[in-house]
Amino acid sequence: RICVITLAEAHPLLQSGKTIKNINYQISANCSRLQNKVSGKSKRTCSFIFQMQGAQFLTELAPLCRISSSDGEEYTIYSCIRGRLIEVNENILSNPALLQEKPSTEGYIAVVLPKFEESKSITQGLLTQKEYEEVLLKRRSSA
Prior knowledge:
Number of strands: 11
Strand content: 25-35%
GO molecular function, one term: actin filament binding
Keywords: Cell projection, Nucleus
Subcellular location: Cell projection, Dendrite; Cell projection, Growth cone; Cell projection, Lamellipodium; Nucleus speckle
Shape: globular
Helix content: 10-25%
InterPro entries: Abitram (IPR039169), GCV_H/Fam206 (IPR033753), Single_hybrid_motif (IPR011053)
Family: Belongs to the ABITRAM family.
């Protein structure tokens, strides 16, 4: 039920041979994703329940971080999912190349936990790998 936020394989940072200069989790003067402090416990009853406090709530359009490349381009990475921010990957701050070298494993951006009652509709709305590849093919052919 958790969602790991990563760069899509078609993201310009993964396609163009760019070098990542900086990753910034400071979204605004008053909001840093690094200040997200989650505490809580898990209980096992009939189903898994995770009780947490202090996690920032994100909407689909909530920015998670900004990534600057050496050519001056800046990319804002959005949550794309409603839920609680469980953690951000601080390892990419000291080693930004992880985003490009291992985007779907060690180079993840954040982990988000959607509301239980919304998780089914979220997963039903996701594309399969084949559907995603078809979208990319259409995008490339129209460019």
